[in-house]
Every structure is written in structure tokens, then in C-alpha cells.
Amino acid sequence: MTFTPSDGRRRHLASLAALGLSAGLPQLAAAQSSSFPDKPIRVIVPQPPGGGFDFVARQLAERLAKQIGQSVIVENRPGSGTLVGTDAAARAAPDGYTLLMGSVSNIALNMGLYDKLSYDSLRDFEPVGLAVSYGYTLMARKDLPFASLRELIAYARNNPGKLSYASAGNGSGQHVLAAALWHQAGVEVVHVPYKGAQAAYPDLIGGRVDVFIDLSSTARTQISSGAVRALATSGAERSPLHPDVPTFLESGVQLDLESWFGYFVPAKVPADIQERLRSELGRVIAQPELQEVFRKAGGKPLALSAAETRALVRRDVERWTGLVRVMGVRAE
Fold first, then answer.
1. Can you state the angle between helices 306-327 and 173-185, rounded to 10 degrees?
2. Whole-number Å distance between alpha carbons of 86 and 91
3. Contact between 114 and 258 (Cβ < 8 Å)
């Protein structure tokens, strides 16, 4: 190919144009960020409608939409526990227009439950804000002859495999927390998985299974009616729903868990858009009216800084990933 002066001039002008364009890219990106959001935002909920994930997601979405002046659409993407929806969020375009409803279940527990997970919670997601946490309650069939978790553990230690516990399915939060409880206590209790938490209650009430751990907000209806008995709660402090019921820690088991819920974004979303979302969601989370909604539903409203949020998420991911793998619990 022959090089001519005119070719050189054209290439020189093209180079200058390219330099001018690249120099303008930061300003273009800033202009795009300043207009964010200029279209609807979607929130992927990795569970079906009606559960804790869905409830919190919709409470936040409704108020965030009013805050930012754009629609916030909740999209339920259940499947393989919480895996399908969470993976979809991880693969979404990192433009800030796709959020994930995250909890201990899909952000922390999945890291230990699957040998080949398609995402890494700490690498692929950034928390926008955590709004509320819910504790769990250990319930017993009403005719089980133990008045406390201590008594139940003492019996189980002397009678391995004689007691049974229900769960909402293999790899569910109810399964992992119960398995961790028995692991920490050093006892053997037989696992009976069900297809969802609600499916376990008839057998617990009917005395066909001995104990069941469920979210305290859901458990309180059966406890209040006298259909089952509360033995212990999972939080570091006693639950306001069951103030007379001791915690696992008070019962001599070094274990505590409260399942937090909040919004996450893909980690590659530009930092300024993340901060915009974090600021707007923070205003929503701070609304007294929303906090009262969560309290009435049995939750504990959270008020965490960005640094505190990241630290809490990292702590639970590292803690529960290790514990789940040690226990050998699997979702399959």
C-alpha cells in the first residue's frame, strides 16, 4: 500500500477527531449520570410474590418511585431457590436500571450451598441499602415434652436421631439455620424438607414433626393461637414479637442470625449512579411511616451507613459460606 501526503493528512485529521471525541467522553458520561434515572427501574425479586422478599421489595419500590419520579417495577424471577433471579441480576447491564432484592438467603447462604455458583456475592454486587431485618423462631409441636431449647438439646444429645425438624426445603434459610443450630449444639436431629414454609405447618401442628424454625413474623400467628410453642429465637437480642422467649445464645448455643433485606446493584454500575441510588433509597428507608410498616410486620428497621452496610454483608457472606460448607449442607 502506497502512503501519500493526502493520506497522511486525512489520518492526522482523523486522529485529532478521535482525540477530541475521547476527551469528551468523561463529560458525556457525566451528562448521562446527571440525568439518571430517565426511564423506569426494575427490581428483580428472586422469589414468588407474597413472601418476605416480595413484601420488602414492593414497600421500597412504591416509595422509591415517588422519590425519583420514575416507575420502579418489581419483577418476580423465582427458580432454584433464589438462584435464577439473582443470576439474572448479576448478568444485567450495569447501568443502574436493574436492582436486586437481596437477603442473607441469596447473598450469603448461596455462596456455601452451591459448588459452582454463577456469581460471587462480594465481587459481582454492591449493596445500595438494607432496610429491615427479621429474626427466626424455633417452634415445637405443642405436646413435645420440653419447655426450652436447653431441654430439647439435652434429650437430643442422649437420643440421636429420635427428634425431627421441618424446613421449607433443602437449602432454604429455615433448613440452613436449623442445621447450624444442631451443628453448633453437637446433636443429631432428622431433617424433613417440605415445599415451602406453609407446607410444614400442618405436620408441625398435627404432631408429625417435632420442631420447625421459621421467620418470627410468620411464626407468631401459630404461636399466638396456641397451635405450637416457641422455644427460642435467633437474634442477638430477644425478639419484640416474643419478648418472653430466650435467644439461642441465652440457651447456650453460640449462634445468631437475623435475615436482612435490601437492594443491590451489579458491581460495575458507575460509582456516581450507585451513590445516587444509595442517597435516594436512604431517604426512603428513613421514612418513619415505612419503618412503622416494617415493625408491624415483625421486622427491625435498619439505619446503616454505606460502610456499615458493606461490613455487615461481608461478615455474613464470609461467616455463613464457611459454616454451610463445614456442615456439608447442599441445595440440591
1. 70
2. 9
3. no
Question: And the C-alpha cell for 118?
Answer: 454463577
Cα(286)–Cα(297) distance, rounded to whole angstroms? 17
Which tens digits make up the pLDDT trace of 106-149?
999 999 999 889 999 999 999 999 999 999 999 999 999 999 99
Q: What is the dihedral of CA 283, 288, 291, 293, to 10 degrees?
A: -120
Q: Do the Cβ atoms of 203 and 226 come closer than 8 Å? A: no
Cα–Cα distances (Å) from 80 to 47, 83, 102, 316, in that order, read 9, 5, 15, 21
The H or E element that residue 176 is part of is helix 173-185
**Domain region containing 312:** 41-131+260-327
Classify residue 137 by burial, with Cβ atoms within 10 Å: 0-12, 13-18, 19+.
Answer: buried
Q: Within this chain, do residues 115 and 140 fall inside the same structural domain, yes or no?
A: no
Helices and strands (DSSP H and E) totals, the chain: 12, 10
| pTM of the predicted model over 0.85 | no
Query: Which of 232, 178, 231, 174 minimizes the C-alpha distance to 198?
Result: 174
CATH for 145 = 3.40.190.10
Query: What are φ and ψ of residue 261, in 5° steps?
Result: -135, 140
With cell 448478568, the residue in question is 91
Domain for residue 162, yes or no?
yes
Same-domain check for residues 143 and 228: yes
Q: Mutual orientation of helices 149-158 and 173-185 as an angle, nearest 10°? A: 70
Cell numbers at residue 217, please? 413474623
Verify that 141 and 81 share a domain, yes or no: no
Letter string b/e over residues 301-315, b meaning 16 or more CB atoms within 10 A of that residue's CB: bbebebeebeebbee
Contact 278, 140 (CB under 8 A): no
Q: For residues 299, 305, 309 and 315, what is the CA-based torsion angle, rounded to 10 degrees?
A: -110
Q: What CA–CA distance (Å, rounded) separates 193 from 331? A: 11
Q: Residue 297 burial by CB count (10 A; 0-12/13-18/19+): exposed, middle or buried? A: middle
Query: Tell me: the pLDDT tens digits for 58-116?
Result: 999 999 999 999 999 999 998 887 889 999 999 999 999 999 999 998 999 999 999 88
